[in-house]
Amino acid sequence: MSTSAETKYSPTMLEPRKGTPNPRLTETEFRRRFLSRFQDRAFDGLRPELDKIASAAWDAYKHQRKAPHTRKAGTAFKDPDYELSVDWLAARDAIHAAQERHRDPDGPARILLISGSSRSEHSCPGEISKSYRLVRIAQETMDQTAGVKTTVLELHRLASEYGRMIHPCKACFSTSPALCHWPCSCYPNYSLGQVDDWMNEIYPMWVEATGIMIVTPVNWYQVSSPIKLMMDRLVCADGGNPDPTSTEGKDAKLAKALELEGWSYPRHLAGRIFSVVVHGDVAGVENVRRSLSDWLCYMHLEPAGPLAEVDRYIGYWKPYALSHAELDADEAVQEEVRNAAQTLVEAVTVKRAGKMVSAGADLSEPRQK
Predict the structure, then answer these.
(1) Which residues touch 134 (CB under 8 Å, ≥6 apart)?
(2) What span, in angstroms and rounded, lies between the C-alpha atoms of 299 and 190?
(3) Which residues, listed in sequence order, are joined to residue 152 by a DSSP beta bridge?
(4) CA–CA distance from 37 to each of 40, 41, 62, 66 (Å)?
(5) Euclidean distance between CA atoms 215 and 323, whole angstroms
(6) Tell me: the pLDDT tens digits for 143-190?
(7) Is the Cβ–Cβ distance between 239 and 263 less than 8 Å?
(8) Is pTM, for the whole model, over 0.85?
(9) pLDDT averaged per 10 residues, the chain (length 369)
(10) Pairing mode, if any, of strands 70-72 and 83-85?
(11) Rounded Cα gap, residues 147 and 335, in angstroms
(12) Rounded to the nearest 10 degrees, how much is the dihedral formed by the CA atoms of 16, 20, 21, 27?
């Protein structure tokens, strides 16, 4: 712990608070939960093998082997000899490569289109979402401009694709921003079975993009569940620590001391341009659109312009069964999405040409976050 932190703050103030009930399982309950995923009759002849696998999984859980495969961090980090997860290092490498694509003046203008609804015909709802249809309208509009490369992030895959998931944020940032690593180091956690986290693929999508367009429905006056999961896990992109060795992994006390020495709050996504399209059925579109816009601005992304932010009702108070027919008929909202897409492309083009002036960009904020 640094001397400066000790002199200004008492050791008691830096001590992490405890008191949450212990979630550790007994071996019996662990095995029950582990084996419950193998209910298909195809596994009936494999029960002896599954018992052996469950025993191995219990050993990993019991000894809390979060990251069983590590290597020395190397000279790029504060502590070159610290053992870092190979999964985290691979995620970091992917982000660095994405950053190079983002900076390449000879590369295409990269725009990330995010379809935020959970609905698709490949799961229980049995039907495509309006969000995805609107994303395709935006993509078709953008692809008409030479030098633009679009990538579509289909968040509905969380509900329809095997092994596709975004684990919840563990709120390390609230203990200290220095404890929230960029990219997130909370996952994978093999001992807890918290694997196959999609965010290590999603982070580079955000990093490489010059423009971001989010299309989401209103779910209970909020963004959709997939959008919120992604949002929370992007906290590390806004003030997160790129060097886990500086906190010896997840040492909360070290992180608190490091923050109190003076944290820089690095804005890893600052300067990217955004567009937001929110659609709903009966309520909430304006609040959700403002919420998304406020969040993106708070991360120092920049709005493309008034036409790039849209909140509309499609089939207002009409039967849900007819919602796609209502979208078919609502040519105005389709055109508004095209306008939002064109506005984003124009803003990205100007940004890449170095002609966009962001007033106040060089000012220092007295309170960062």
Answers:
(1) 215, 277, 279, 334, 337
(2) 31
(3) 113
(4) 8, 11, 20, 21
(5) 16
(6) 999 999 999 999 999 999 999 999 999 999 999 999 999 999 999 999
(7) yes
(8) yes
(9) 57 92 97 97 97 97 97 98 98 98 97 98 97 98 96 98 97 98 98 97 98 98 97 98 98 96 95 98 97 97 97 97 97 98 97 86 82
(10) antiparallel
(11) 22
(12) -50
Distance CA 225, CA 244 (A): 29
Which residue has tokens 């790029």? Answer: 76
- What dihedral do alpha carbons 110, 114, 120, 122 form, nearest 10°? 50
Outline where DSSP puts E strands in the chain: 70-72, 83-85, 109-115, 148-154, 211-217, 273-280, 302-303, 309-313
What is the Cα–Cα distance from 92 to 12, expressed in whole angstroms?
34
Pairing of strands 109-115, 148-154: parallel
61: helix, strand or coil: helix
**What is the residue type of 340?**
A
Q: Name the E strands within 273-362.
A: 273-280, 302-303, 309-313
